[in-house]
Every structure is written in C-alpha cells, then in structure tokens.
Amino acid sequence: ALMITDECINCDVCEPECPNDAISAGEEIYVIDPNLCTECVGHYDEPQCQQVCPVDCIPLDPERRETRDELMTKYRLITAA
Ligand code: SF4
Ligand code: SF4
User: Fold this and answer.
1) Alpha-carbon gap, residue 58 to 52, rounded angstroms
2) I need a surface site. Which of 16, 39, 40, 50 has the fewest CB within 10 A?
3) Do the interacting molecules here have an ipTM over 0.85?
4) Could you tell me the sign of the dihedral formed by the alpha carbons of 38, 40, 46, 47, in that order?
C-alpha cells in the first residue's frame, strides 16, 4: 500500500483518481486506507494518486510492503465484495 506524508497540502486532487476509493480526507491531511490500496494493481500500470499529487507526498508505506501477487489478491477481494 501507499501512504500520504505530512507534506500533503489537502488539495483533493488524488481522492477522485483512486479506483478503489482508498483515499479520504483525514483530520489533518488526506489518508489512504491500506486495506483498500492495491497500488492500483488490477486497474492501472501506475499508482494514479502518485501521478497527480502536486507535491509528491505519496510514497510506498514501509509498514505495508506487498508483492504484486498479494496486491492482486487484495484487488480480487475488493472487487468481489
Ligand atoms: Fe488508490 Fe491507487 Fe493510490 Fe492506492 S495507489 S491509494 S489504489 S490511487
Ligand atoms: Fe495531499 Fe497529494 Fe492528495 Fe493533494 S494529491 S490531497 S497533496 S496527497
């Protein structure tokens, strides 16, 4: 999963781009639900939020490293629900 750092400027550009609705406005900055973020696997070749963020504040979450297979499994679970 990806994560949003405190450099976020709350511009709201990323939220509508997420195919999994994993991004929302948190109390101070935007947040990604790691249980819904597939790093865009299953939908796109590249993480869409990273592509549009004007301040590049959406890195990989070091606490939530996943293989492509794990991300694809998550994608299947989300889309089957
Ligand atoms: Fe959503 Fe893709 Fe960004 Fe994850 S990488 S939060 S799935 S847009
Ligand atoms: Fe924050 Fe970047 Fe999303 Fe804008 S695009 S709300 S700066 S994470």
Assistant:
1) 10
2) 16
3) yes
4) negative
Measured from the CB, is residue 30 less than 6 Å from ligand 2? yes
What is the mean pLDDT, run by run of 10 residues, along the chain of 81 residues?
98 98 98 98 98 98 97 96 65
CA angle 74, 76, 78 (to 5 degrees): 70
Q: Which of 56, 57, 42 is nearest to 5 (CA)?
A: 57
C-alpha 25 to ligand 1 mean position (Å): 14
pTM of the full structure: 0.96
Give bridge partners of residue 24 from the DSSP assignment: 31
